Amino acid sequence: MEIRNRHGLDQFCGSLGERPGLLILDMAGANQATVSFLTGYGHRLYSDDFLRQLDQAFGEADPYENQANPLIVERFLDSVLTFPEGHFDGALVWDTLQFLAPPLLETVVERLFRILRPGASLLAFFHAEERVDTIPTYSYRINDPHSVGLVDRGRRRPSQLFNNRSLEKLFREFHSVKFFLTRDHLREVIVKR
Domain 2-192 has what CATH class? Predict the structure, then answer.
């Protein structure tokens, strides 16, 4: 497991100390490090491995072609992010959104907006290097407010390239969007609902 400092995580964790008993969505799947870290703050956690859900719904061969199939998309959306409005106080989205084709991406971001409470923070990562066919994917484990452990999950082809302008447009319904560009070609994004 590789450990990296993350400024976006630091910003996200800054909002955790404001009040106890928050409910946080973690889209990397359950792991003991993140559970211990968040419950140590007195918060509750709901975890789901969003990438595994994508693979199960759309397959690994050509998931973007399958994401254009309305029947498969409907089944997928019926199985993920089906929470009541304003259910979560924060969301750890990690790198999952960059593997959604544009129409599905818009729908998932709309659902995230709906299930987050006003003032909630969302942390997402987007690969920033433009001349690549595939990008590394990871399972994320929070070590402390400043660093995260990365467990390699292989490489995937992203659905599209994201720059600051496209991310501002993607999160246009949210209150604010803040970017951190890292040395390892990641755009860390903190979004406030």
Answer: alpha beta
- The DSSP call for residue 37 is H
**Do the beta carbons of residue 123 and residue 8 sit within 8 Å?**
yes
- Look up tokens 């968040």; give the residue: 38
Three-state helix/strand/coil letters over 79-135: HCCCCCCCCEEEEEEECHHHHCCHHHHHHHHHHHHHHEEEEEEEEEEEECCCCCCCE
Supply the pTM of this predicted model.
0.93
pLDDT of residue 181: 83
Q: Which residues of 147-170 are buried (b: 16+ CB within 10 A; e: fewer)?
A: ebbbeebeebebbeebeeeebeeb
Q: Do the Cβ atoms of 79 and 85 come closer than 8 Å?
A: no
Pairing between β-strand 44-47 and β-strand 23-26 as defined by DSSP bridges: parallel
Mean pLDDT by 10 residues, the chain (193 residues): 86 82 95 94 94 91 89 93 96 96 96 96 92 90 93 92 93 95 87 95
